[in-house]
Amino acid sequence: MLVEVSLFASALVLGVIAAVVGHRRPPTLDAERLFKVAQATLLWGTTERSGGDEKAWVAAVERGVSYHPAGRLGWLKLADPAAALPVPALSGERSLVDDLATLAPGSARLERMFACEAAREALLGDPAALGPEWEPVAWLGHGCTWEGLAAWDGPVRAAVARRLGHLRVVLVAPAGEGIEELAATLDGVAGARALRWSDGPAEALAEALAGEVADLAERLAVVTFGAAGPSVLAALEANPALRDMVALVLFVGCPLAGVEGDAPAGLAVAEREAWLAEHFRQEALDTELKRATPYAMLARLDREIWPAGVARVPWARQRLDEPPVPPSGRRPVAVVDLGAAPAGADTLPAEVFGRSLLLLAAFLLGAGAPRA
Question: Among the residues of 239-366, which ranges form H helices?
Answer without folding.
Answer: 240-245, 269-279, 350-364
